[in-house]
Design goal:
Largest sheet: 5 strands, parallel
CATH topology: Rossmann fold
Strand order of the largest sheet: 2-3-1-4-5
Distance between the termini: 57 Å
Number of domains: 1
Shape: globular
CATH architecture: 3-Layer(aba) Sandwich
Number of strands: 7
Radius of gyration: 23 Å
CATH class: Alpha Beta
Number of helices: 11
Length: 279
């Protein structure tokens, strides 16, 4: 049985049917950029790394992957990573059928990854489009020197050889991602952004919000919205959302409830005395 909170998700959520893929190698600062530019959008972050790090903490394992201790713990770490990915997939839901997790309510998503596997991301993007989603990408770009420096200083570091290989793979995919996502790709140069650099962050935030707030036009998405509105006996699409007026005229029969017999100006009841009193 669904909880009351779960029943409110989906149709009532902002920016449904929008999915943003994150791309950027170790040390690119993806989490930092996302934290600064997607607040208030209602998009859910899908990130197995966050779950994995919690499991590492619970098990008492060091986050630094470059140590001899980490190498001895590799087998146990791999089990924890596999478990973290399974939990994350369950949170997301079935990307083929759209059942379960965030996908069941067609909730807006931020899918956090490195972007080194082009085919995997495109496959996920195509399946999401088949569910009715508009897919986008936020590509966080850095030089190899900056990426290696940040990787060395972050909590969960990997070997330089691993970071370099990942960086090269991500860079080689940038052009292909640009073709796949076309006008729906936001590229962020994160080589020297400071925490208080409001100009750059505000520009990225505007781009992300502009894409997220575009009206849903996919026929599959519109059909799902209309069906959900009928199931919930809703005749007007919620205001402030990206779903438009699908499924109803938005005007209840017999006028607005509670409005009969009131004389109003600018949506408020007229006062009995004062400047705006009835003459």
């Amino acid at each position: 049985m669904k909880t009351f909170h779960e029943l409110q998700e989906g149709l009532q959520d902002p920016n449904i049917f929008k999915a943003f893929f994150l791309a950027g190698g170790p040390g690119s600062g993806k989490s930092f950029v996302v934290g600064k530019t997607t607040g208030g959008t209602g998009l859910r972050i899908v990130n197995s790394d966050a779950v994995f790090e919690k499991y590492l903490d619970d098990a008492g394992f060091d986050h630094d992957m470059r140590t001899a201790k980490a190498e001895r713990e590799k087998e146990e770490r791999d089990k924890l990573r596999k478990r973290a990915k399974e939990v994350t997939r369950a949170r997301l839901g079935d990307i083929t059928t759209g059942e379960g997790g965030y996908l069941e309510g067609r909730i807006g998503l931020i899918i956090d990854g490195t972007g080194k596997d082009y085919d995997k991301i495109v496959k996920q993007s195509v399946k999401l489009k088949q569910l009715g989603y508009d897919t986008h990408m936020i590509f966080v770009n850095t030089s190899i020197d900056v990426a290696l420096e940040r990787n060395a200083n972050r909590k969960r570091s990997v070997q330089d050889s691993v970071a370099t290989k990942s960086w090269k793979q991500v860079q080689s995919n940038m052009g292909k991602f640009s073709q796949h996502f076309r006008g729906n790709m936001v590229i962020v140069d994160n080589n020297d952004i400071k925490e208080d650099d409001g100009t750059i962050f505000n520009n990225v935030l505007r781009q992300v919000r502009s894409l997220a707030r575009k009206k849903v036009k996919n026929p599959t998405a519109k059909a799902w919205i209309e069906n959900q509105m009928q199931l919930r006996n809703i005749t007007k699409a919620p205001s402030g959302r990206n779903i438009g007026k699908a499924g109803g005229t938005g005007k209840p029969k017999g006028g607005l409830p509670g409005s009969r017999g009131f004389k109003v100006k600018m949506g408020r009841k007229r006062p009995k005395t004062g400047r705006y009193a009835k003459k």
